[in-house]
């Protein structure tokens, strides 16, 4: 696999894990016009700005796509959080019965829904990772996840290099990965650090402190600072990445967000009556924790970040940076590998069901194993 | 939420959302979703992704827009003036000469700002079109130029490390074809040119200098033109009618094609306003008066309503066609020999391997030939050396023989000298003894000996 630390440096060292050259420069005032394109003064209104409306109409007609992955140990409230985010029953909140055995391997489950609001259609795919970090030995438990993410990139790449391409390539790439940190109150655990290090190179990661209702406000703050310190020490760049801030506005906005990451969230999908209002919340003997109340938890911040303000940005970074990095690694590799086991990788991956992808290709597994063997 | 809501406002406000229990909206495309096996979900509250189109628009504003127009028409037909009028600015001043031997294309890029939209506009003009006596080569440069832009984009797309989001898109989005207002029919050159361009670019034909035709003639002219285009199978750009908001207006505009336009940047006072118009002794032709010409319609269609569609058609239809043809030409296919799907990479690798093998073979061949030549040369040289050696030996032998002969001769000579000196000694002794006996005999003997000796 390309982005494991053992091999990641070799493959991705050419351009670094994040390529800062992502977008074209920022709007009018700050960018000087190049000498070859002289700015022209128009003597009157022409109607060029109508192109924005045209863009909007087309976008609304085509609909939007968004793919989220939630990662965390069982019982941290991942399914509930997804239900709360999109205010609907994406899936039943999983409650493990006493009789059901814990899954031995990590099996990813995806579910796709189309939701519509005020004429805007959104095709939402949520991928869950039950069994993550639940085993005794959690070594390499991130493999299936990284495999799944790479598989989506691979799928897109294969579609893109066809001769006769589809008009609109279906985008199944993971745009955002929400990582649930258990509310220990101390600091990030080794599993968290390992996972975040690997994942941040291939996908946008937003860490959240799960079940934050077990921490007081002060404890949350200390925990948050410690986590931020851990992230800095291990050079883990979570979304919004500092290197992609373009202009001063972006930087100011994103610094505010970065200051509050990871958000301390609480998920709830039941409604209760509080002061005559119907709110989503968790009812306990000592009170009702309102999910959408900023004084109680930071769920609104997470929701705003993911949906209301940075959704397009998440998709852009996935497309322009992570996907391009993957593509570069992949295309470079195919030139280096002679006809051998690596050659077989170039064939189209058999389109497996999206729901439960196994550690993708058998040959890649072998290749990875053999490469690991080489190191020892 | 208003449509102006930007990221700043959203995040800085931190306002709690409405938590009323709204009834949800059901998606109406249920048939399609059943086919796709995707459930449509009803939400029990307001989530907030209706701002998605705004987020998209914001990103586009940040990136800026690109629009490229190609103007094809004879010299002096009014291309530059029309573009000036369309965008309400003075782009360039000088007219061009009629005496160019070949058709050239001249591209110029300008940056226009309107409210918060930045438009990078590229105008490509054909210089010298229709001026030559022999017009056979007139439209090929245009086709080549369009292909070159597609090629540049394709190259960028196929690069390993690419920067598509930065790339200045130079592909032609629309071609305005200027038809002379003869009032009769299309010229052959026009027909041929449009036929060769229609699969590569969106063509919008316009009747230039429409103030030269009367209204009645204009109607007949338009009908004639359209019927000629249709009967010759020229695919001009049709304004899209699939979206209800603009379907009606687009459909009605489709009926007015080709637009009869008049361009002018000069202002004339009409009534109490200054309007763009052309002043004649018999009246004033107002550019923006819909009764006088179709200029407003053209501007409306080209810029205000369909600019995005033109760009999309160029990318998804014309560019894809070019790409497919180009890649197939290079030998790539999607389907391998056993009808199994092949990837571009496989074909590329196969070809690369093939070429590599070929190169190896050629290298071997050359090596062999070189070795052969060296051997031959060596043999020749050796031969020469041997010959030389033989000659040397031969000469040496000859020399040796000569020497021996001379030695022999010398020996003989020496022997004779010895013999002679002996005889001389003996004769001197005989001479001294019997001097008295027979002097004359002896003398005769002596003479005889002497004469013998000599």
Q: Could you describe the 3D structure shown?
A:
The complex is a heterodimer of chains A (376) and B (454). Chain A contains eleven helices and ten strands. Chain A is of the alpha/beta class. Chain A has a single domain (50-95, 103-335), classed as Rossmann fold (3-Layer(aba) Sandwich). A six-stranded mixed β-sheet of chain A has the order 3-4-2-5-6-7, with helices on both faces. The longest helix of chain A is centred in the C-terminal third of the chain and has 26 residues, at 311-336. In chain B, 28% of the residues are buried. The model of chain B is unreliable at 1-36 and 337-341 (pLDDT under 50). Chain B starts with 6 loop residues before the first helix and ends with a helix. Chain B is elongated. Chain B has 454 residues and is α/β, with parallel strands linked by helices. Chain B has helices at residues 7-13, 30-36, 52-63, 79-87, 140-158, 188-197, 215-231, 244-254, 295-305, 307-329, 344-432, 439-453, and strands at residues 39-40, 65-72, 104-114, 117-127, 174-179, 203-207, 259-260, 267-270, 273-280, 283-286. Helices cover 51% and strands 13% of the residues of chain B. Chain B folds into two domains: 60-330, Rossmann fold; 340-422. In chain B, helix 9 (295-305) crosses helix 10 (307-329). Chain B has a six-stranded mixed β-sheet, with helices on both faces. A three-stranded antiparallel β-sheet of chain B has the order 8-9-10, with no helix packed on it. Classes of the chains: A alpha/beta (376), B alpha/beta (454). At the A-B interface, strand 1, helix 2, strand 3, strand 4 and helix 7 of A face helix 1, strand 1, helix 3, strand 3 and strand 4 of B.
């Amino acid at each position: 696999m390309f982005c494991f630390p053992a091999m990641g440096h070799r493959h991705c060292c050419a351009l670094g894990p994040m390529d800062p050259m992502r977008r074209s420069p920022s709007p009018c005032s700050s960018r000087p016009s190049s000498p070859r394109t002289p700015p022209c003064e128009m003597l009157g209104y022409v109607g060029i700005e109508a192109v924005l409306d045209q863009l909007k109409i087309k976008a609304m007609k085509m609909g939007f796509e968004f793919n989220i992955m939630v990662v965390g140990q069982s019982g941290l409230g991942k399914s509930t959080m997804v239900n709360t985010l999109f205010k609907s029953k994406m899936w039943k909140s999983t409650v493990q019965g006493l009789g059901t055995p814990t899954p031995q391997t990590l099996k990813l489950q995806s579910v796709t829904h189309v939701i519509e609001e005020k004429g805007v259609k959104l095709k939402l795919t949520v991928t869950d990772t039950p069994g993550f970090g639940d085993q005794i030995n959690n070594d390499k438990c991130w493999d299936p996840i990284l495999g799944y993410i790479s598989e989506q990139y691979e799928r897109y790449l294969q579609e893109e290099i066809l001769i006769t391409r589809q008009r609109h390539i279906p985008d199944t790439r993971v745009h955002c990965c929400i990582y649930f940190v258990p509310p220990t109150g101390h600091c990030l655990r080794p599993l968290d650090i390992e996972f975040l290090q690997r994942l941040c190179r291939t996908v946008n990661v937003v860490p959240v402190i799960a079940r934050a209702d077990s921490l007081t406000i002060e404890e949350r703050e200390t925990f948050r600072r410690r986590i931020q310190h851990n992230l800095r020490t291990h050079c883990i760049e979570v979304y919004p990445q500092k290197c992609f801030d373009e202009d001063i506005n972006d930087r100011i906005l994103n610094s505010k967000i970065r200051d509050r990451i990871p958000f301390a969230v609480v998920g709830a999908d039941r409604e209760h009556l509080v002061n005559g209002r119907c709110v989503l919340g968790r009812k306990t003997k000592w009170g009702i924790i309102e999910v959408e109340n900023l004084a109680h938890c930071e769920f609104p911040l997470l929701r705003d970040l993911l949906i209301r303000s940075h959704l397009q940005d998440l998709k852009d970074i996935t497309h322009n940076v992570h996907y391009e990095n993957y593509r570069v690694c992949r295309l470079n590799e195919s030139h280096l590998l002679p006809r051998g086991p690596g050659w077989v990788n170039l064939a189209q991956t058999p389109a497996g069901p999206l729901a439960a992808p196994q550690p993708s290709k058998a040959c890649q597994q072998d290749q990875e194993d053999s490469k690991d063997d080489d190191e020892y | 939420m208003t449509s102006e809501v930007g990221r700043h406002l959203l995040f800085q406000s931190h306002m709690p959302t409405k938590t009323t229990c709204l009834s949800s909206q059901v998606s109406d495309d249920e048939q399609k979703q059943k086919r796709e096996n995707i459930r449509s979900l009803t939400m029990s509250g307001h989530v907030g992704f209706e701002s998605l189109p705004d987020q998209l628009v914001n990103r586009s504003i940040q990136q800026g827009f690109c629009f490229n127009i190609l103007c094809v028409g004879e010299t002096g037909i009014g291309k530059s003036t029309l573009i000036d009028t369309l965008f309400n600015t003075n782009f360039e001043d000088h007219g061009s000469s009629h005496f160019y031997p070949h058709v050239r294309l001249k591209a110029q890029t300008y940056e226009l700002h309107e409210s918060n939209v930045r438009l990078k506009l590229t105008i490509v003009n054909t210089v010298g079109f229709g001026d030559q006596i022999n017009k056979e080569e007139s439209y090929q440069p245009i086709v080549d130029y369009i292909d070159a832009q597609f090629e540049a984009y394709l190259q960028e797309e196929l690069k390993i490390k690419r920067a598509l989001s930065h790339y200045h898109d130079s592909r032609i989005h629309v071609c305005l074809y200027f038809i002379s207002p003869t009032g009769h029919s299309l010229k052959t050159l026009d027909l041929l040119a449009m036929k060769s361009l229609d699969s590569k670019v969106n063509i919008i034909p316009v009747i230039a200098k429409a103030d030269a035709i009367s209204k009645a003639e204009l109607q007949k002219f338009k009908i004639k033109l359209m019927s000629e285009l249709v009967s010759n199978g020229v695919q001009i750009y049709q304004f899209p009618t699939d979206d209800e908001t603009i379907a009606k207006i687009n459909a009605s505009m489709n009926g007015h094609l080709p637009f009869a336009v008049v361009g002018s940047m000069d202002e004339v006072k009409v009534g109490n306003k200054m309007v763009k118009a052309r002043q004649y002794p018999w009246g004033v032709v107002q550019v923006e008066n819909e009764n006088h010409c179709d200029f407003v319609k053209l501007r409306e269609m080209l810029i205000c309503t369909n600019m995005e569609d033109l760009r999309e058609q160029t990318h998804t239809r014309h560019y894809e066609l070019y790409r497919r043809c180009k890649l197939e030409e290079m030998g790539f296919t999607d389907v391998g020999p056993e009808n199994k799907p092949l990837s571009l990479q496989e074909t590329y690798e196969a070809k690369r391997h093939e070429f590599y093998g070929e190169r190896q073979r050629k290298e071997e061949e050359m090596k062999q030939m070189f070795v052969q030549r060296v051997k031959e040369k060596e043999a020749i040289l050796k031969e020469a050396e041997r010959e030389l050696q033989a000659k040397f030996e031969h000469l040496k032998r000859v020399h040796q023989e000569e020497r021996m002969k001379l030695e022999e001769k010398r020996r003989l000579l020496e022997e004779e000298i010895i013999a002679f000196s002996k005889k001389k000694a003996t004769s001197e002794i005989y001479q001294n003894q019997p001097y008295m006996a027979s002097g004359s005999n002896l003398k005769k003997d002596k003479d005889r000996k002497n004469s013998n000796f000599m």
